[in-house]
Known about the structure:
CATH class of the largest domain: Alpha Beta
Number of strands: 9
Largest sheet: 5 strands, mixed
CATH architecture of the largest domain: 3-Layer(aba) Sandwich
Shape: globular
CATH superfamily of the largest domain: NAD(P)-binding Rossmann-like Domain
Number of helices: 8
Distance between the termini: 28 Å
Bound molecules: NADP nicotinamide-adenine-dinucleotide phosphate
Strand content: 15-25%
Order of helices and strands: HEHEHEHEEEHEHEHEH
Amino acid sequence: MRFAAAGHNVFIGSRAHERAVAAAEEATIALGETASAGTIVGHLNTDACKMGEVVIFSVPYAGQVDTLEVIRPHITGKIVVNVIAPLKFSNGQAFAAPPFEGSAAEEAARLCPDARWVAGFHTLPAGELKNPNTNLEADALICGDDDEAKTVVLELANEMKGLRGMDAGRLSSARYLEGTTALLINMNKLHKMHFSVRITGV
Ligand SMILES: NC(=O)c1ccc[n+]([C@@H]2O[C@H](COP(=O)([O-])OP(=O)(O)OC[C@H]3O[C@@H](n4cnc5c(N)ncnc54)[C@H](OP(=O)(O)O)[C@@H]3O)[C@@H](O)[C@H]2O)c1
């Protein structure tokens, strides 16, 4: 919704076309008066990847490998932003549960080396993102090894109301962004809030 509010055409992907269409309709309605911005249309994951110039890869970690298998031919050469945080839950607490490579982002980059991988947006509150009219007042921490791709994603982040894109370094930093998601979940539960991260001293 925030990408559409910034004027971009958005293709929501799903494993089922009807779910993508329903999600796109819901998002378009939620955009309301902002709907004069970009369009939001639903497609199968493969078609959404084909159509998008930049792909946001946002499925639960359990579905990462299978989904990459399906979309791999359609993300070659494209900027793909991995927002996935592999977590486990025990005794009411969230814990980071990274794969062997250190992060979901690095695993994805190993499995699909022909995409231009970037990782970020993990530390933003999902509920706030869904209201395109509020100021986020947060930083989007973005990391990656392809500087040109990272710059594109930082610029996209800066287009969102109140959001500031912040270069978080190499793709290997994704392990810390993914892990911070566990920290924020636990803090949100403790304080009954929806926290995000802002870097100071800039
Ligand atoms: N929510 C947050 O605040 C937050 C913060 C940091 C990171 N993240 C990360 O962002 C990602 C998405 O989070 P979310 O809360 O949007 O997750 P979600 O609602 O559980 O999943 C998003 C979509 O992924 C698809 N999906 C579900 N299971 C799948 C599977 N096994 N294989 C392939 N596709 C599957 C579903 O779409 P279809 O059934 O229509 O295909 C679902 O609507 C997660 O990896 C999460 O760790 C979220």
